[in-house]
Structures are given as C-alpha cells and as structure tokens.
Amino acid sequence: EYTSGNTVLKHLLKWRRQYGPVYTFTFPMVRFVFIQKPEWLEHIQKTNFDNYIKGPEFAKIFSETLGLGIFGVDGELWKTQRKNTSRIFSANAFRGIITKSINEHNAAFQKIVKEKNGTPFLLSDHLHKLAMDTFIKMIF
Length: 140
Fold this sequence. Notes:
It is a single chain. The protein is mainly alpha-helical. The protein is built from six helices and two strands. The model has no long low-confidence stretch (mean pLDDT about 80). The protein is globular, with a radius of gyration of 19 Å. The chain has helices at about 10-20, 40-45, 55-65, 75-90, 90-115, 125-140; strands at about 20-25, 30-35.
C-alpha cells in the first residue's frame, strides 16, 4: 500500500531492523543485495573486488543507462575506469568541489525557504539538484 508518508528510505530502515545488516530485494528481472556493514563493504569493494562481478546480465539490463562507465563494467575495463576516475575523486579535489558547490547552493536554498514562508515543499528536489550539480562539477 502506498501513502504519501511511505518512502524508500523508510522501507530500507524497516528491512534493516527486520533482517539485519544484509538482505536482498528482488525487483522485476534483478535482485539487489543491501549491505550495511562498512567492513563488509570494504571487503567487496576493495579487498576482494574481483570475486564480486556484476556479470553479463547486469550489463545487459543496465548498459543503456550506465554504458561502459565504472558502474557498468567488470574486470580490466573496471580497473581502467577506476584509475581514470580516482583522480577526479581525490580527497582534496572532492572536498574543494563539494564545499564550493554547497556554498553556491546555500544562498539559493535560503531564498527558496524564505519564498515558501512555511509552506511545505519537496526538499528532495533541491538535494537532488545539489547532488547532480556537484557531480557534474567533479567530472568536468
């Protein structure tokens, strides 16, 4: 049942309490595995990455959206993409870009809050814009 108060985050938190730090969710044609333990994520994403491939089915489903970027490939192509993107996501570059982007959006956000004058609005729209603008600045 869907009501305006239900959000994906609420469901994820509910399932975390119900099933623990690891659980799966099946969406048509794909299964998602949620892992919420930092040391397990490090094992999968860094320490033992080669053992956790996305595979051809993932590529088939998401290739139109993800292309051959770091989020859509495995193996040597992933390693090449990782090397290319690691320069973009260095700690200093990351901090500088995010700080600048937040400062730029802060003034605009304060203006929106004043204009709304207590009227409810979707904060997620503004956070999404901040995230997208920041990401684009990091890439270009």
